[in-house]
Amino acid sequence: MKHKTFAKILLPLVFFTFTLGCSTVKGWFGKDKTDDRPPEVLAEKGIKDLKKKNYDDAIETFEKVRDRYPYSEQALIAQLKVADAYFFKKKYEEAFQAYREFEKLHPTNKAVPYCIFREGQCFYRQRSTIDRDQTYTLKAIDEFKRLKQKYPDSEYITKADFYLARCRKDLAEHEFYVAEFYYRTKRYQAAIDRYQALTQDYPEFPKNAEAQGRIQECQELLAAQDQPKGILSKVTSIFDAKW
Question: Mean pLDDT, to the nearest integer, of 3-22?
Answer without folding.
Answer: 45
